[in-house]
Model the fold of this input.
Amino acid sequence: MRKSGILNRHLAGALAELGHGHEVLVCDAGMPIPVGPRVVDLAFRAGVPSFAEVLDGLLDELVIEGATAAHEVRAANPAATALLEAHFPALELVPHEKLKSLSADARLVVRTGEARPYANVLLRCGVFF
Done:
């Protein structure tokens, strides 16, 4: 068993398969899950694990070259807005319906237990060299 890092074997395996340009949707418990991408559902109960915990863990493991979120997050979820803008100064904001549409092309969906609205982000993987 791993001593540190991501312990969930499904998530660790899925992350190892990602390459440059692949997209990962990190979403709250209410986001519709698109058909097609691999899904790792971490939701245990409302709020567990939180969007922030999952995002921070993923950012420890991945190189991210871009991020997209719904512009509705600004009005509906100030905590998620602050978190996303702190991590991604060039955060792209699109209408929530467009984010759902873009999510269909994600390689991986990671569902959190977050129960606050619009705690969703589409991450675009970069390379470490």
Remarks:
- Helices lie at 9-16, 51-61, 73-76, 78-87, 96-103.
